[in-house]
Design brief:
The structure is a homohexamer. By secondary structure, chain A is of the alpha/beta class. Chain A has 7 helices and 7 strands. Chain A has a 7-stranded mixed sheet, sandwiched between helices. Chain A starts with a strand and ends in a 6-residue tail after the last strand.
């Protein structure tokens, strides 16, 4: 049972979409808790629909929305108790959340609230958003070579956010043909893919997502 | 397949002895590489024997000694290539080594050499020695409640080191009866046990060993 | 004159109770400022009574409550000015407060507010709460071997909090007889004691409390 | 006048090759000091030739070799004084060197030696090698969109190092067609390019190299 | 085009007044955005007048006030959008703001808000306020030997703040004649000057202001 | 009993000369261990004489020289055992040493060796040399207003080092009359004084020396 917590629609997918898709592929249930509907950057109904479409692409319909206000998430008891209630309900084996090392105030506060809410959980991993500060320092990696396509496809769902730099990437669309992409996803960020390659290099695999370790209680399997 | 690397006899046991015992208990092969014979603090032959006795207690006879000189381990090519040769031979799934955040020069250098030698390995965890600096910051924990007794028993083997503070602990022997110990191990450090309790508290279990994450490529098991 | 500031009843005792008891024992006046009545985890009147009982155990009746709301302490001017008013009234030689490296939002904010309020004070030490983050890094220690019993006894006062993990510790009550404890305090945390042993080991004494140094103006006594 | 210092042939190109090419393009003289001939990973004569070919590609023949031994560079007076002598000779306006946050002992030591030798220089920037530790944290960026091709071409010169992971990249050659590359450079690392895209994203440009700031005395130009 | 953002009147001058004066001297336009009128430490009308006088001394009348409340600046959307609107209007080439490593809550929050608002800017430098935490770590310096007098003169404008320690400095007025000052500015801080000398020493010049680098996209001028 | 350890003649005085003078003034014995004779920057006999003259100015003749080679101090067993032998002989209550956050390789290594040698000591404070890295972060301060003159006078003894930047300071001699100095010490660094003012400001006194805390076991005096 996997729970991922994000501040806005698309944060989870950008941070750990390929990892979640891999969990799904391996038979795990995944649950997504999005603290706001992202109403500061678009129509909340549209964003909710996009988010559900994206969730389905990754492989789940377990999508929940918190009741925080976009741009005004705090690290206080409101956010904490909302997250706690989902942890209680879902009993996740592993929780994914924002890293506090992030330039967006909602992300930082969501990170702190997630860490507080998950204080008794066994595994908490913190993902790298496009707004992550440059001292984000991943120690744990997941090889997402087999599911990175799904991440890109999931990101396609967020049509309303296309103008954002992490979607159009850091080049004029089409200037370079994306290495992984296809005609189907012309606007997908080459920043996301660049990062996946670089984290992959650090991990010794082709494409990876990197995580800071909030807490990780390692279980030792019998052999 | 597990490989643990330490600077001197007793470093591995103090840092991750209970974790290794748990790996053994779960059916994994464990290998110990000790870079020196600890000749600066005792007769090297005696220390070698003690070390083998300790290894057996943990559950292995796969004990190897490097050819470094006690107190003079460097982080250079000599140490690196010795460690590399064992990595090549053993192909460990996981490697345990010193943390660079350590007050002992041999530990620091062994840590850097281990990290260099293991640069292409998938999982490298850094253990907490009694000389660890106070900014050692564990992110990953192993619940060693079921094997902590074996760690203490293994430490008993190091009779020649009894006068060291981390063996006699931070109190006069016998002043307080150790919580876990017994008549059998009157001199075992209550510092080790105190640390295991504290790390256990942080991990949400009774007794734990804590590790910094050098690198951890998380595999996602099929369910 | 000593002032300790905590977010909730029991924070001060858990963080620096034995150190305060030692100050008292050596003839210093100690004052406790608790910013909230901890109403989120129990009846505030009960918690106030427990807190006073605990304070008396440590050796003082100088117990004050701030007017902050439990779970909603901020690092802003309200908290700062409440703390400032007590600093003005008491003129403490040394101030103890939370560390900002803490997983609880109230603790973090109390820490920042205390540091702001104490900006002109000569000595500010930051204590280690059970929720301290793992990068809490103590540099200054107090040997509390002679008063640790009083700390445990003071913690007994907080009967309403018994179910919290840092009270019952990280094992079933009674599974191990605590090394320091007695029949009188069966439920006291072995985590607190484990930490005190470990910090004691780092400090070279039997049992210690560790502190981060906010500021310390060292006076050099005439000899 | 620009001076770049590297431990081995190819370090400078991997770390700041595109930035140097840009300096050249803008009319600055560039000088390369390579502390060893990289004899531990190939024939030193071959590596010297490759290095000169690479330097020419970037746009300079000012290539110097230090007299350090591969794998045995220290941070001591030998390395420092060799670097100092070139600083004295060249009087560079800006110096590029390794970062101390690097997993390779030669890189770490070269970094410290460069920082010591350059202690009176006005601008020292530390580049990101493929072995950089994950806490490398760039603050300063150079937009290398216009010269990244030259970097890749320069890297082609190092034919003897093709088997190294940062050359072949983290995928089987040809599995994905590189975004920037061409038939001409089939083996060039897609890790380098992934990193350049990601750093570019952080800098707000297409492709960037990122640097830690050793020291930077900002001159304010008249307008 | 230069934009400096500060929490209160006098923050900008204390942090980067001499650098701004140098920009002006070299022909650049400078703009000052002060988020509050500092009403918690004086009459806001008086403080506004002082601030304008100070701005003129540095060489600009482009002084704007935000609509935040003194002591209650947040890092949220209100502060961010106020700063964004000025960035949009002014299109600065370089932005100066507070560092998050600051003991004053308004400064910390202003810093985070400035970094968020400036996320797409090319150059963001963070200045050192008198309340900066001791882990403030400047990497970039400006030689302000030629304009430090102007900084001191600008600080003279803040007559209402004379009682603050960073104005009267850390000694009784007149106990030592300030090295740089004159009869004209008897009360100006010798702390500011001490810091300028020390940062100057680190930078290799006589007097300097030091900055942490938020982001710096280095342009390479043609030669 | 106070022991200060430095790498070269003048390091101790620059780092903690005024603090040592204050200890002496308050009746404490002070001992100076200088690991090398500084033969890389002058005639060792001359430097030894200067060092003794300086020691006398501070108030002691207890000056010892280690047997390390200038520019080649290591952090290994040779340096450690030399320092240990003096700790054994002198039994200092407090030890002053270099900080590892220093740009000079001898200083870094001396720091690590001092920390290792002093691992069982109760108080170890790390001083700020002119070569300290910019992330040196003092937490503990000593008010040296009353003895700073002695520090400057002691530094006068090092006539052979006058050309070094930290002696002549960061301005042409005489350009500004030093605030504290006099005709007697025209060449004394205004950097040292600038730093003392700045650290004094941070400590809330006129002139201070700042220290990182290696370890500090706080004793609580009876009142």
């Amino acid at each position: 049972m996997v729970l991922a917590v994000g501040a806005h629609p698309d944060d989870i997918e950008l941070g750990c979409g390929a990892t979640l898709a891999l969990f799904k592929k391996r038979g795990h249930d995944i649950h997504l808790l999005v603290l706001t509907k992202g109403e500061a950057s678009g129509n909340p109904d549209d964003r909710e629909k996009e988010c559900l479409l994206s969730a389905k692409t990754i492989g789940t319909e377990n999508l929940y929305f918190g009741k925080m206000e976009d741009t005004k998430i705090t690290d206080g008891i409101e956010a904490i108790s909302q997250i706690e209630s989902y942890i209680k309900k879902i009993s996740p084996d592993i929780i994914f959340g924002h890293s506090p090392k992030d330039g967006h105030q909602d992300h930082r506060n969501a990170a702190m609230a997630t860490l507080s809410a998950a204080r008794n959980s066994k595994k908490v991993l913190l993902y790298e958003s496009p707004a992550a500060l440059r001292d984000f320092c991943p120690q744990l990696f997941v090889d997402v070579t087999s599911t990175f396509d799904l991440k890109l496809k999931a990101l396609e769902a967020f049509g309303s956010q296309v103008s954002k730099i992490y979607f159009k990437g850091n080049h004029s669309v089409g200037a370079h043909s994306p290495a992984v992409g296809s005609a189907r996803i012309p606007y997908v960020s080459n920043a996301s893919e660049g990062l996946a390659r670089f984290r992959g290099f650090q991990a010794g695999v082709e494409l990876a997502e990197g995580f800071e370790v909030g807490k990780f209680l390692l279980e030792i399997e019998s052999k």
